[in-house]
């Protein structure tokens, strides 16, 4: 029987994120603009970026604007490529540096659909439509659609104008953007040493008089997508935009901007190796009933648990496990999980304490006893709050990154009822227990995993040949005594 692709779905109506388009007045530089061409039959969507054996950065910049959840201040954030070993770092830029890349209609209360804003100069369809169509294509790929992007747009959009606009936007032949070298001491490095004392609700970094708060979402997306080096420019408020309450907007823009190898300024053709932390002994931090533990392993794995069975029965007790080397990409598995509040009273108390001065109801899912205040906002029906906690954990683990070294360590990390305070204590314990000898090349990790998978495949093939599959129940294996079949006596149908 010939296998057919699932029917593609129509593009969603809500924008996921906005990306950068340079203004017409700005002179073109290498990596800006788009090289027009007719899409070919072999055009396929670029895969979601993941950590690799070499350091990576973005191929080109993107810009997002939005309100900070706790400050209520508006900020423009431009994420740009960086050289190898520069790491991820935040730079405050003067007013007007990046704000011209967006057009804002007017000051007004903003809904979650508006948080990411439209980009600057468009082609024939606005940026929202372009992003939504591409997101729909990615989702259909996840459901099993095997055609090219051109096939998908033809199937879903036919000859509509949006199809040609999106194919222009989805351009694989754009040159890499030039990189601005980091000046000595410039900006705030996204590392453990830059962390200020946390309030538990967000992670704040500082250097001198500069401070940046709410960095966990963007760092979780950069870490999970393997963007080891990035220059993050912030104009306006000191808090990063909440967007839709999840790292999804950052993930989509990273995917759209593409990842590429990061080079050093004096070695523009030589890829730089990447290492990962591989501790040999367990580590645990605990505060009351909450704890975070790391157990040595040959691959990274996260398990997070929360308990709201008393204050929010709709949440109850939840556990989620994710292994980036085994499971689906961060963007699909946990990256779309929104920030949550167990109850409305919880939000009121936070606001009275000086938090939640911005944002909207749409960036948060709110528990209301045994149901959600707005069920339509829930993306993961069974465990979205727990998945969002895992997003925060990934974002804080990114602070373990050092030049040429990833943030998320190898090992099984189990976190129960974690918050940013406890996670930062956990990072400090890891840093104290580790040394340079505990770092291994990432290609060694991948080689070990491939070897294990190959060995497992060989075992399964051998067992299958011997008809001794380890996955068969005992009574299904050949030679296993079977229970006798009892045939009930039949009545004598002959006449007497």
From TrEMBL:
This is UDP-3-O-acyl-N-acetylglucosamine deacetylase. GO terms for molecular function: metal ion binding; UDP-3-O-acyl-N-acetylglucosamine deacetylase activity. One of its GO terms (biological process) is lipid A biosynthetic process. Its EC number is 3.5.1.108. PANTHER family: UDP-3-O-ACYL-N-ACETYLGLUCOSAMINE DEACETYLASE 1, MITOCHONDRIAL-RELATED (PTHR33694:SF1). Its cofactor is Zn(2+). Belongs to the LpxC family. Residues 1-53, 465-496 are annotated as: Disordered. It catalyses: a UDP-3-O-[(3R)-3-hydroxyacyl]-N-acetyl-alpha-D-glucosamine + H2O = a UDP-3-O-[(3R)-3-hydroxyacyl]-alpha-D-glucosamine + acetate. Keywords: Hydrolase, Lipid A biosynthesis, Lipid biosynthesis, Lipid metabolism, Metal-binding, Zinc. The keyword Zinc applies. It is an enzyme of class 3 (hydrolase). Residues 486-496 have a biased composition (Pro residues). Pfam families: LpxC. Involved in the biosynthesis of lipid A, a phosphorylated glycolipid that in bacteria anchors the lipopolysaccharide to the outer membrane of the cell. Lipid A-like molecules in plants may serve as structural components of the outer membranes of mitochondria and/or chloroplasts, or may be involved in signal transduction or plant defense responses. One of its GO terms (cellular component) is membrane. Residues 12-23 have a biased composition (Low complexity).
């Amino acid at each position: 029987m010939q296998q057919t692709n699932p029917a593609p779905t129509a593009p969603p109506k809500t924008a996921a994120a906005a990306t950068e388009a340079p203004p017409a007045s700005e002179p073109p530089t290498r990596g800006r603009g788009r090289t027009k061409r007719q899409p070919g039959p072999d055009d396929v969507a670029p895969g979601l970026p993941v950590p690799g054996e070499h350091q990576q950065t973005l191929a080109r910049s993107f810009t997002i604007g939005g309100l900070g959840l706790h400050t209520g201040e508006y900020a423009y954030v431009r994420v740009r490529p960086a050289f190898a070993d520069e790491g991820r770092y935040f730079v405050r830029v003067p007013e007007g540096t990046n704000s011209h890349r967006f057009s804002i209609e007017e000051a007004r209360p903003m809904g979650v659909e508006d948080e990411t804003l439209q980009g600057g100069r468009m082609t024939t369809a606005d940026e929202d439509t372009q992003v939504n169509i591409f997101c729909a294509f990615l989702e259909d790929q996840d459901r099993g659609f095997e055609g090219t992007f051109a096939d998908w747009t033809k199937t879903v959009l036919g000859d509509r104008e949006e199809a040609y606009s999106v194919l222009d936007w989805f351009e694989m032949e754009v040159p890499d953007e030039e990189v601005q070298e980091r000046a000595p001491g410039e900006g705030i490095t996204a590392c453990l040493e830059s962390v200020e004392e946390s309030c538990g609700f967000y992670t704040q970094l500082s250097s001198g008089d500069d401070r940046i708060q709410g960095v966990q979402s963007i760092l979780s997306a950069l870490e999970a997508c393997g963007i080891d080096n990035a220059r993050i420019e912030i104009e306006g408020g000191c808090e990063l935009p909440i967007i839709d309450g999840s790292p999804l907007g950052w993930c989509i823009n990273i995917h759209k901007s593409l990842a590429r190898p990061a080079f050093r300024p004096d070695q523009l053709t030589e890829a730089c190796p990447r290492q990962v932390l591989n501790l040999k002994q367990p580590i645990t931090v605990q505060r009351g009933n909450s704890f975070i533990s790391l157990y040595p392993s040959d691959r990274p794995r996260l398990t997070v648990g929360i308990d709201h069975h008393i204050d929010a029965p709709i949440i109850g007790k939840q556990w989620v496990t994710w292994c980036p080397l085994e499971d689906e990409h961060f963007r699909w598995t946990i990256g779309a999980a929104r920030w949550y509040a167990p109850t409305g009273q919880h939000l009121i108390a936070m606001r009275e304490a000086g938090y939640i001065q911005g944002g909207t109801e749409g960036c948060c899912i709110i528990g209301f006893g045994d149901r959600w205040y707005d069920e339509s906002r829930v993306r993961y029906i069974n465990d979205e709050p727990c998945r969002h906690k895992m997003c925060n954990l990934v974002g804080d683990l990114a602070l373990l990154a050092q030049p040429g070294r990833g943030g998320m360590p190898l090992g099984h990390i189990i976190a129960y009822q974690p918050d940013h305070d406890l996670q930062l204590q956990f990072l400090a314990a890891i840093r104290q227990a580790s040394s340079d000898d505990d770092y291994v090349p990432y290609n060694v990790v991948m080689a070990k995993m491939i070897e294990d998978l190959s060995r497992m495949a060989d075992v399964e093939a051998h067992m299958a040949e011997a008809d001794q599959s380890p996955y068969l129940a005992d009574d299904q294996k050949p030679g296993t005594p079977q229970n006798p079949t009892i045939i009930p006596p039949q009545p004598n149908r002959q006449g007497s």
